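Quick one:
INPUT:
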């Protein structure tokens, strides 16, 4: 259980750590990077997560 919490923190922290590298590499402003992250969140909002999906045999 502790390993899953660590993995979750590691994965969720990756975009925050990589943000300056992505921004500098692509020559983007913080506003443009924020719009990219927002577009990703909005596009995934309509899809159900794997934990909320019911198997078809139930």
């Amino acid at each position: 259980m502790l390993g899953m919490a660590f993995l979750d923190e590691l994965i969720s922290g990756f975009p925050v750590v990589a943000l300056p590298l992505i921004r500098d590499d692509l020559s983007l402003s913080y506003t443009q990077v924020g719009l990219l992250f927002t577009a990703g969140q909005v596009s995934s909002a309509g899809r159900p997560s794997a934990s909320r999906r019911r198997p078809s045999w139930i």
